[in-house]
Batch of 2 targets.
Target 1
Amino acid sequence: MASRKPLSLRQEGIMDFIRKYLGENRFPPSIREIGKAVGISSTSVVNYNLRRLEERGYLSREKEVSRGLRLSANAPDLVPSGGVLRIPIAGPIAAGEPIDIGEGVFDEEDAIELTHDLLPQHDNVYALQVRGDSMIDAMVSDGDIVIMRQQHEARNGDMVAAWLTDRDETTLKYFFKEPDRIRLQPANPTMDPIYVDPAAVQIQGKVLMVLRRLS
Amino acid sequence: MASRKPLSLRQEGIMDFIRKYLGENRFPPSIREIGKAVGISSTSVVNYNLRRLEERGYLSREKEVSRGLRLSANAPDLVPSGGVLRIPIAGPIAAGEPIDIGEGVFDEEDAIELTHDLLPQHDNVYALQVRGDSMIDAMVSDGDIVIMRQQHEARNGDMVAAWLTDRDETTLKYFFKEPDRIRLQPANPTMDPIYVDPAAVQIQGKVLMVLRRLS
DNA sequence: CTTGACTCAGAACACATGTTCGTGTATAAT
DNA sequence: ATTATACACGAACATGTGTTCTGAGTCAAG
């Protein structure tokens, strides 16, 4: 496990590519795919470097099995974990539309992977990508990914996606039930809450997480 | 979801075997391996049933790629993945202080796990937890976790953590270099940029990701 | 200079593996 | 009976893919 010497630039690139490929395809790349990605014309060179990496314990291989390689758990920056869950990105969300999850649509490409410790529960969980700046008062900006659990009730303090029937509008706000009305509080503390009739609100789900990726 | 008819016994067995195989080997089985395990002599029969399973959305396949199949996100059971990286949470960050990363301190407990596909690069990456509402103009709220890479240069359009020497203030803004000044643009499009003397700005790092967990 | 590691390129080889085609057998609907 | 559909079998095919061999370049040690 102890690797005094640094990885060669090429081997670093191979490791990176395998990681990336594995993340995208869920199965390991072939020798030739690695070669093309890293800029190696010969399969034997890739094979050679893979053997190197295997000796160092960075990965393990199955002989004579196509794509028969796996990253080791003790590779740098990699830690065995409680598991990874894959959440489908159901679709874009904008302020002017109700949230609609196409149940049958499983676009395998559009999914997001989260570690289990980040999201303990995973029942009825889905992700939406925000389109537009309509939710800046919820501290959610264009392109953000909102991970939520589908549910139709809310408890005080929950951040929920609420459909306001009289305004034809979906909004992300903190939910507070008051005696005769419902207070929807923006996440931005400088903005004022809105008050609505309980009959005019449909809870679409509870926001569990907001994730923003930058370039 | 949409599974009117029950799976045939054979297809059930195939699914079970794929799950088991994937758990043991971390890469998918070949058609012939599936056949042998389930008791099918012909590869075409396996292929046929795989196509059936694919139509039902239980798995997806890559054409003409050996072992090019993956289970769908149907079952949120743990699925092996490209790897998980652990990022230490260096410390709290507030507007009134420069960012200080205690290099030696690696509190194993305070770390965040991300899947590799979410964060391709991982050199000099660390995480900070935001304290206070001083960064609402960056669409970052109290408690948010900011993941950034330590660097002292920035390119136009990067979101950076900048230390304004004359104001004694750390701020998260989009970075734009203009002829004689630097424009720091808030993420919130309704707010105005600030302009500063290039000599009065120290780039602390580039923001890669913002993550907000809600109860 | 010579030697021997370490790394690389190219080509040929062997076989692992996905694909396809023709055929056969049920069961149910027409 | 006929047709349609779902499922199964075996064999041949095309190619994806790991393996191996020959040769060569680099670089530090003897």
Target 2
Amino acid sequence: MSLQHAIITALLEKPSSGLELTRRFDRSIGYFWPATHQQIYRELARLERAGWIRTLPGEPGRGGRKEYEVLPEGRAALVEWVAAEADPKPIRDALVLRLRAAAVVGLNGVDEQLRRHRLLHRQRLSEYLDIEESDFPEEGEEDAASGDRLRHLVLRAGIKLESFWLEWIDETLAELERERDRQDP
Amino acid sequence: MSLQHAIITALLEKPSSGLELTRRFDRSIGYFWPATHQQIYRELARLERAGWIRTLPGEPGRGGRKEYEVLPEGRAALVEWVAAEADPKPIRDALVLRLRAAAVVGLNGVDEQLRRHRLLHRQRLSEYLDIEESDFPEEGEEDAASGDRLRHLVLRAGIKLESFWLEWIDETLAELERERDRQDP
DNA sequence: GTGCGCATGTAACTGGTTACATGATTGT
DNA sequence: ACAATCATGTAACCAGTTACATGCGCAC
């Protein structure tokens, strides 16, 4: 269900076609709920059947392009969903799992993977920091719109999450270093 | 594929039956790769067909209970997997998504959900801290086995991840508080 | 022998992933 | 006319989820 509500959120901000949505997802909502165009088309079709969104009347042309907008029922469903109760879903992370396996069969190139992930997380973090700088300048936070402050909090989640990974990977690589020293002193 | 390797890891530590594995998952590997008994039975069957594990010969009795052990092929596959290259999978988090939606349709009970999650993350964190205290006492880290130190790093990931969530939720609730003050000064 | 808990499983469904198909528009 | 790109979609697959089925051994 979450993807459907993510889509409604995006459509409320701006009526869009499937591909446009996909692209907008790639650089905002998709940071914590990624989706491919196939998924998005599937859900758009379902949402339309459910009567939560509709294609904008008028121009269906321009390469078969269809623009969708949210209907009142869709908005109501989103409002309800915002307050819905749901437990946090446990994460599934293969890198940690690899390290766990290494505890049993030995470190055999995990460090290289750790370094690769460190690089990727660094890139992602600096991407987020760039967005923060350009979209949420420090001054003006007080007189910003409420929605903007909330969007900033969402971005903060991304920033803190990436920072967490970087810290953990650093801590882990340092320990693996010590581990190696213990074996060849 | 990850679940299969998680299972091999667990079986290497101790040959087990399906239900035993399920229970052990619930309080160790499952913290970052949860699995239900149905999933585990399915994968055990596949792993056996692939020739990576086998049922322990001898006693198949006691309520149809079957114990599995890892074969050399399975161990080799795990060693290879430990060093395999795979990008970090983006997270999907509904709570952040709800906040994102709230930026568009208004805060309507998200705070209650934030507080619920805060409680759950606190519980999870103290669970981890208890495990850390009992399984990885500070003294003796130096002369602990390598595997233990690696398992400790894995636990550290859990601890830091829960701490991240708590920090972010606190920051967010504080901001929502200020938000409310702005509306009714 | 009946009911309870342990243990192994099947079946149907949902959502995410990957690969491919089709048509329209735009630039050369 | 042709290729590149934009845009919408289908199909098959895989992993995780939920609900249910079945058989065994033990306690009462």
